[in-house]
Amino acid sequence: MSKITEQPIPQGKYLPAVRHADFIYTSGMTPRKAGNLLYSGKIRVTDKTESHKDAVRLATFNALTAAQDCLNEGERISLILQLNVFLNAEEGFTAHAKIADYASEVLIEKLGANCIGSRAAVGVASLPSNAPVEITLIAKVIQ
To answer: Pairing relation of β-strands 32-33 and 23-26?
Structure first.
């Protein structure tokens, strides 16, 4: 597979993704482009879920891009074994699954309808650089 030119830029001392055999593990990806955080802030109870759609989609795309960069010629990702969606949410927020669906939608668009195995949507007190979302993936590779 040809390398995607705009790889996520690590914000610390780690790799965007690492491969072991036929499995790819991504680092946490936030909604950044060219290393710049495009969305920030806590997800509020009063926010409409769709107001966070673009941030979640960008973070998910970054994770998928990092994973795809680990592929060799003729390989593809067949399944997302684990999708983790961490949300920088204020206390009392309960629509985690609805916001995580935006991440699922990106993967379904790129990989097909049955591409997601398990998923976790987790509210946290904070995320790096005050990002609203952080995404990690574990992907299965096939020829």
So the answer is: unpaired
Q: What angle do CA 57, 59, 61 make, to 5 degrees?
A: 65
pLDDT band at residue 9 using 50, 70 and 90 as cut-offs:
confident
Average pLDDT (24-37) is 97
Domain borders along the chain are 17-142
What does the angle CA 64 – CA 69 – CA 73 come to, to the nearest 5 degrees? 120
**What gap in Å lies between CA 75 and CA 68, rounded to an integer?**
9
10 and 27 in contact (C-beta within 8 Å)? yes
CA pair distance 71, 77, nearest whole angstrom: 8
Amino acid occupying residue 104: S
Report which of 124, 114, 119 is spatially closest to residue 102, judged by C-alpha positions: 119
Domain 17-142 bears CATH identifier 3.30.1330.40:
yes
Judge if pTM exceeds 0.90: yes
Residue 50 neighbours by CB under 8 Å, 6+ apart? none
3-state secondary structure of 108: helix
97 Cα distance to chain centroid: 14
